[in-house]
Amino acid sequence: MFDVAVIGNGMMGAAAARYLSAAGAKVIAIGPGEPADWQVHQGVFASHYDQARITRIIDPDPVWAQLAARSIDVYDEIEAASGIQFHTRSGGLRVSPDLTAPEDLLNQAEQVGKEVGAVFGRLQQSELTPRFPFLHLAKGTVALWERGGAGHINPRLLVQAQLTIAEQQGAVIVRETVTALTQHADRVEITTDAGVAYQARQVLLAAGGYTNHLLERKLDLRPKAVTIVLAELGKAEIKRLQGLPTLIWRLTNQPLLASIYATPPVRYPDGKIYFKIGGTLKAPLYLHTPEEFRAWFHSAGNQDEGNALREVLLTLLPGLRVESYQTKPCIYTVTAHNRPYIDQIDERLFVATGGCGAAAKSSNEIGHVAALLVEKKKWAYDIGAEVFAARFK
Description:
- The chain has 393 residues and is of the alpha+beta class.
- It is built from ten helices and 20 strands.
- Strands 5, 6, 7, 13, 14, 15, 16, 17 and 18 form a nine-stranded mixed β-sheet that branches. Strands 1, 2, 9, 10, 11, 12, 19 and 20 form an eight-stranded mixed β-sheet that branches. Strands 3-8-4 form a three-stranded antiparallel β-sheet.
- Strand 19 and strand 20 (349-353) form a beta hairpin.
- Helix 1 (11-22) packs parallel to helix 6 (155-168), helix 2 (62-73) crosses helix 4 (106-116) and helix 2 crosses helix 10.
- The two termini are 32 Å apart.
- 47% of the residues are buried.
């Protein structure tokens, strides 16, 4: 009998398992490892199967900014305790081509950044060009240049670091997939694809887009199918792009994409170095059933979206010499209020889900908030419970 079962060994769940085990709870963290071959895998996937995600504080939403700031503050502590380095301080640019556009949020992000204490400055085009000569900057471009802890994290290694510490603190890590939850008067029974049943007094469900697959009463979750492009670079291009920060760039006159995000060249498991770019579709595709999820992860993503990202990449980095391209599928899950659901939804059942495409950098603090809720069995955080309240379909 465990005190808490954390279902989902992704970024939120792994963080929660670390905090709960540190508080003295008897914890079991259940979730599968990364599949060796995506094309034949018939189970669940996770979106942290990646080498680079943007980490930053500046955000138009003060809640997301606060979650990020508090997460970044403990990166060094997690690295030291686990012996796993996952954080690179490359800096980050939030770029706007036109501050007068109604949809532009750069001024709002700047104000929030000041309130939260981010280390950054506003740069005009004349200041940006000499600092980042490899970028194409249209007339009138303005950017926020964030330093401090801004840069990128390796999400695979962050999860590994969190689970390593949790295990050191006594948590049991199980690499299986949960297939059913059965609530009893005094416990919850958790059945896995290995045919094993585990017992826990409380369950924290942190299964991302798969969360609803285990719930009878469905949350209002909107899993988005998104495509990323990996552009393989050779030694000369890697040297030319030294000093490239992470990018968040609002686009104009792009029919498919409202904005893009990108991370500097990093080495991937195949040994090659890739520049990664993804975007925000103006007309997103939502997935819900296990069959839809599986078909999407077995694909190479949306080729129209991939082509648009390649076009934008070559516009933003003129003359870029790419050795090869790959498109990859990903899913991120949006909530009704565009903040994560961290809530108690039944007597013994809690949720921490809905990253809204912004949770990798903030996952440690999201896990912390969820762990506090499970441990105290009441809200004990300085941002109100209503901000994270779960909503149902």
